[in-house]
Design goal:
about 350 residues; alpha+beta; Butyryl-Coa Dehydrogenase, subunit A, domain 1; Butyryl-CoA Dehydrogenase, subunit A, domain 3; 3 domains; about 50% helix; flavoprotein
């Protein structure tokens, strides 16, 4: 078991971090209303090939692993870059891989297509009706909260069975807590669909939990970094606020959470690559800890920034909002962990 990044993995992290620093446009993209940073996504997916990190080389991917994908997700979580990496390079790629959709997978891996997955809350089946018509399938119903649904070219729809749609549906962008992760409602009305065999919902969910945990870890690290720097320069009553014991203890708590979260993320990513049978337990354990931990760290970051932390101009509230919405995405992780341990959910 290797939980320490090797030289190549560290170089990957440095490359992605530098690229994101050179293209820091969070506020600009928010103000534009575009939803995603398309030039940045083109560089990440097309030029660097990061959309297909876990896709085999014979299908147009990089043939890397979930450890490498977690590194990229972590850096995206640090920067809050508005690219559809989680929706397309994680959810859609994993669904296409697990379902054997080799027709679409290479185009997702290259970044030519943006994909996403539509499931109900708690990763259950949607209330979407599938009917056979003219030798094919059509869908009717609604998918209420779809990440990157506003820009997705391909949507994998789960209603107890799996279907893929590439058009013929309406989208409505929703105003949600987190403006950096667009969500849309999709409405299907006799929408042509292609039925796929298999039901890998648990596998897709567990791999998504690993990638999201890496993203959350990146956000926690950024909160710790910016809050620590602020505590060094903000002076109150003639002293830097970082010299006060209460502030030191609060920062120490965030640091401790970050260290534990990093250990869990490294283990989860390794498990996704090397020990498939153990992934459900490790994924549930990771999300049960890191979801609440990130939100607690982001809350502390806002408070320790004082009045400036509550302003729109400061980024503290963006991490706070991302932390809460990410925690809700896997709100059933604690119950899944209890089931994995043979316990009854509370």
């Amino acid at each position: 078991m290797r939980l320490v990044l090797d030289k190549e993995q560290q170089e990957l992290r440095s490359t992605v971090r530098k690229l994101l620093a050179d293209h820091a446009r969070v506020r600009e993209v928010l103000d534009s209303g575009e939803g995603i940073d398309r030039p940045l996504w083109k560089r990440l997916a097309g030029e660097l090939g990061l959309a297909g990190l876990v896709v085999p080389e014979n299908l147009g991917g990089a043939g890397a692993g979930h450890v490498e994908r977690a590194i990229v997700a972590e850096e995206l979580g640090r920067s809050l870059a508005q690219v559809p990496f989680f929706a397309s390079a994680v959810l859609a790629v994993d669904a296409a891989s697990a379902l054997g959709d080799e027709e679409t997978l290479p185009r997702l891996a290259s970044g030519e297509l943006i994909g996403t997955v539509a499931v109900a809350g708690g990763w259950g089946p949607l209330d979407v009706r599938a009917s056979e018509r003219d030798g094919g399938w059509v869908l009717d119903g609604k998918a209420p909260f779809v990440i990157a649904g506003d820009v997705a070219d391909v949507v994998y729809v789960y209603n107890g069975q799996w279907f893929v749609v590439t058009g013929g549906f309406e989208r409505k962008v929703l105003r949600t807590l987190d403006p950096t992760r667009p969500v849309a409602r999709l409405e299907f009305s006799a929408t042509p669909a292609r039925k796929l065999d298999g039901d890998p919902i648990a596998r897709v969910r567990d791999l998504a939990a690993v990638a999201l945990a890496a993203e959350q870890l990146g956000g926690m690290g950024k909160v710790l970094e910016t809050t620590t720097e602020y505590a060094k320069v903000r002076v109150q009553f003639g002293r830097a606020i970082g010299s006060y014991q209460a502030v030191k203890h609060a920062l120490a708590d965030i640091y401790s959470s970050c260290e534990r979260a990093e250990s869990l993320v490294r283990l989860a990513a390794w498990t996704a690559d090397e020990d498939r049978d153990s992934l459900p337990l490790v994924a549930a354990t990771t999300q049960s800890f890191i979801g609440p931990a990130y939100f607690q760290a982001a809350s502390g970051g806002v408070q320790l920034h004082g009045g400036i932390g509550y302003t729109w101009e400061h980024d503290a509230h963006l991490y706070y909002k991302r932390a809460k919405t990410s925690e809700i995405l896997f709100s059933g992780a604690a119950a899944r962990l209890e089931r994995q341990l043979g316990l009854e959910p509370a």
